[in-house]
Amino acid sequence: MEVRNGEPFQCPTGNQPQALGERAEGMETPIQVVLRVRPMNQAELRRGEQSVLHCSGPRTLRVSPLGGGQDVAFHFSVVMDGARTQDEVFQGSGVQRLVELALRGFSCTAFTFGQTGSGKTYTLTGPSPQGEGETVPPSLTGLMQRSFACLLDKVQNVGTPITLSASYLEIYNEQVRDLLSQRPHHHLPVRWNKTRGFYVEKLKAVKFGTFEEVMELLLEGLRRRRSSAHSLNEVSSRSHALFTIHIQCPVGCPSRPKEQTFGKLCFVDLAGSEKVAATCSRGELMLEASNINRSLLALGHCISLLLDPRQKKNHIPYRDSKLTRLLADSLGGSGITLMVACVSPSAQSLPETLNTLRYASRAQRVTTRAMPKDPLGPQRLGLEEEIQQLRQENLMLKQMLEQPLGHRASRRKGSRSGWAERSLYGMLQEFMLENQQLREEKHQLRSSRDCAQKEKQVLVQQLNELNRRLLCSAGRSVRCPPQHFCSPSLLCPCSVSPGHCQTPACHQVLPPLCSCHCNQLCLLCYAPCAGSQLRQDQANQKESTADLKHYINRREGSLLPGYLPSQIFSELPPLHVFGAQTKTPWKMEVSSPQVQTQTIAPPPGPNLKEHPVKRKSSEWAWAHFLAETLAKEETSGRASQVMPSAPPLPQGPCSTPWRPGGVPSASRMLEEELEVLRDQIDCTLHLGQGKPPSSQEKHFGSGQHLPPC
Ligand SMILES: Nc1ncnc2c1ncn2[C@@H]1O[C@H](COP(=O)(O)OP(=O)(O)OP(=O)(O)O)[C@@H](O)[C@H]1O
Description:
Helices cover 43% and strands 14% of the residues.
């Protein structure tokens, strides 16, 4: 391959688009590039600018730089200078061949490219109408009008009904507008699918059958197309415009008699690249110029990548702009493309002209694999039917989604989509039910946990109380000698830290454990009990002791003057001393809902009869102890011993005179009396426990402990 100007050069072979059509389909075919040089316009002539472009042949353009530099040659399929008429351009550019290929089902594109004011719109549509209602002279009409006429002429000659329709859109500031719509400012989205490639959704396609109809559509779009004036062009297009004719040929068409074809002929009038400084664009013009240049840059980038076969197989960034998306098929797909590069001969425009020439040189090396628009032929019919079915199914599913759930589930039984839907909704319902069950289970577990915690608190409280009782029982298991009653080594734990709790509420819960001073602590918190109650109890204790002393003296005093009672009372545990010894007052009476304080009826005595205070079990425990001691001493004969330290017998009336030798009978009487007293005490104590005393407990001996509380 020959290399010119540093780039590979493929020698043009005349009317290449026509040669393309004669070649086999599916072959790699380069983009055909026609270069048109417009004549110098009035402004350039007024400024006296020189021409730097020279056509040295039908396919060669030479650029002669100012200052006498070396000429640079560019070669294209066709090169046309400014003297060529519109008809010559149409005849020589190969557009007619494009029309033929479009009728055979190919997707054909002719687009113009160049800087602003270089003649692109002029080449495609001719000069702008000079006034309202003015039409372009037939001699000046562009490639489009001539192509329309050519197409309609061929269609009429085919003899079979061919459906023609046209759409016209512009890409203005990267927004697609329908130029045939009554709402041209409404933006249309660009979509893609496998069968159509990129396409504009909801783009209006208007059927036509005559030249007048299609010209009406063209003029309608041209009127709506955005254009503005700047320093280089009074009527400068500010958008890329795509006018597309859709050609639908039925089966039996001479070109492809066995299949239906869908050809396309698209004319693209690109907005011109421009330097903002040169056009003095400001505001909206500058924004438009920015968008135009950006999209043209994306187009040039795609073309550059399409030059490399490896890149072409990988990824071409068509999505960089709306323009490249809509030209994707024409550039790298199955279309046939003709590019008309327009340049100005003026030396002032040389930099932009060189850019256009380089751009066009690259573009003509891009190849497409030309294929009819509908290569599948009959298979397409089946695909279309399937597409139609899928569309209906899609529509149906959309309607079902809009319906209520229950109604939806009951419908469409037996169909595949209905089965899938039922499965999904069934699973959803199952999950919801399971979720609800788990929530309820969680709630129940929480309730059980709370109950267990409360139960645990109660059990811990009970355990503490049992521990306390156990410790108290352990401290009480060794009987204290009267003189060391509740010695410190045997103190129950509550006595270790007396006085730490002054809360009286818990002091009334449990019965007294024993008669030691641990009894005078709170059974729950081990705090000392209230002082007023202690004083009362001390008083009661004194009275109880006095009553007992009096009772014994009354019965035995005359027989054993000054001995037995005095000994007994000298050994009495200092109940009254406890209160005096301890600074903290003690409480002796403990009551609870379960165990009520038991009153004991004392033996009648001089003071007891009218004694208003009832005896408590703790008090009578003392009496029980004293009586038991007395009985033991009487039995062991200690009663004959005389205690010098014994206090004198109390003096008082005595109904029974004392007789020598009467001690045994008196002892027996006393023993009987003590037995009665013992029974009463036992009964009282067992009543405090809520059970009757056993026979064994009823006759516990002197060496036995007091029954547990
Ligand atoms: N071959 C030609 N013969 C005579 N006049 C021409 C030719 N080409 C262009 N002109 C004139 O040059 C002016 C600019 O042309 P045109 O509007 O087609 O440029 P353009 O490339 O489309 O510019 P833009 O990109 O700004 O739209 C117009 O007045 C047009 O009539």
